[in-house]
Structure formats: C-alpha cells, structure tokens
Amino acid sequence: MELSRRWVVQDRESQRFLAIDGGAVAFTPWIKEAGHFLEEDAALETALLECTEGFTIFQFWILERN
C-alpha cells in the first residue's frame, strides 16, 4: 500500500467542485464526485480557466492498494 497525494478544486462562487463528465470539465455539489488532480499545477491551471470568481484547492492523501 502506498499514500498518494491528490488535489480537488472548489469554485468559490457556486461552492461546487470540479468534476469530469465525458472528458469535459463539469461541476458537482458532491466532493465524492469531484475530479482528483494528480498534479497541483494541473489543478491550478484548470481552476484558473473554469472558476472565474475564485477557487479553493484542497490537497489530500489517498491510500492506494497495489
């Protein structure tokens, strides 16, 4: 088992999380449906494009079973 770092983006205006829907960026009210970014830079770049009124990026760790 290994710990892996991930990032999630939340839009400040709508309070929704960025998600992936059929390859496109979407928004969801549920954190468990939020898209997990593998790199902080990718989360930041996507947030800058999709969240025009501000955003919060959360970092967390997940336990991956090999």
Structure characterization notes:
With 66 residues, this protein is α+β, with helices and mostly antiparallel strands. The chain has one domain. It contains one helix and four strands, in the order βββαβ. The chain has one helix at residues 40-50, and strands at 2-11, 17-21, 24-28, 55-64. Strands 1-4 form a two-stranded antiparallel sheet. It is globular, with a radius of gyration of 12 Å.
How would you summarize this macromolecular structure in one to three sentences?
17% of the residues lie in helices and 45% in strands. The chain is α+β, with helices and mostly antiparallel strands and 66 residues long.
What descriptive keywords fit this protein?
66 residues, two-stranded antiparallel sheet, alpha+beta
